[in-house]
Amino acid sequence: MPSLRDIARGDFGASVLAGLQTGVLGGLSIVLYHALGSILSGQAAWAVPARLAAAAFGRAVHSDGLAWAVMAGISLEVVGAGLVGALFGLALRPGWALRRAGLLGPAVALGWYYFAHEILLARFGAGYFAVATRQSQVLAHLLFGLVLGLYPRFRRSLFRDGVPPVEQSGGFSSQAGSR
User: Fold this and answer.
1) Better-predicted residue by pLDDT, 111 or 15
2) Which residue of 38, 72, 81, 90 has the smallest Cβ count within 10 Å?
């Protein structure tokens, strides 16, 4: 559990925010990968998110229209990836792991694919059917993992000069006005 002093220094918050940022960008990369793949295979760009929503929430998700089903599928993918990214950021806070983020990202992403698609959707989804081919899902999640591997760069970019802000009289400053 982080202390209040760690949160004030920005260490805990930076880890969560950078992880969330990389996770959301990785989730968007999955959505874009599937949209491009769907277009190239002659399907509608929104086919995979609509199938993901139906697999997770049941076919009743289409009762309000296709647009709501597509938005539900996209948000499910992006929110799930954002949560994985935030947990990834918290797990990589020690210095040794930051140097290995490029290798750990794809491994975590493939683990997330297996857990989310092969276990959760298969057992607890309202209806399991192929959201996309396994090969396509694995490649999309490898892309997600490559984006997760950029976590240290995103974490460093949160601080100017690469250092957390210093405390000043009960608050903290980002040192933005010092130059």
Assistant:
1) 111
2) 90
Tokens for 142?
A: 């490898």
The 3 state secondary structure assigned to 75-140 is HHHHHHHHHHHHHHHHHCCCHHHHCCHHHHHHHHHHHHHHHHHHHHHHHHCCCCCCCCCHHHHHHH
pTM (two decimals)? 0.79
- Number of Cα atoms under 13 Å in the Cβ half of residue 13: 12
Residues ≥6 apart with Cβ < 8 Å to 23 = 81, 82, 83, 84, 85, 86, 88, 148
Burial class, 128, CB count within 10 angstroms (exposed 0-12 / middle 13-18 / buried 19+)? middle
Closest CA to 41 of 173, 108, 135: 135
Q: Does residue 81 contact residue 30 with C-beta atoms inside 8 Å?
A: yes
Spatial separation of the C-alpha atoms in residues 99 and 33, rounded to whole Å: 27
The Cα–Cα gap between 18 and 157 comes to: 9
What pLDDT was estimated at residue 83? 96
pLDDT of amino acid 144: 96
pLDDT in tens, 50-86: 988 888 888 888 888 899 999 999 999 999 999 999 9
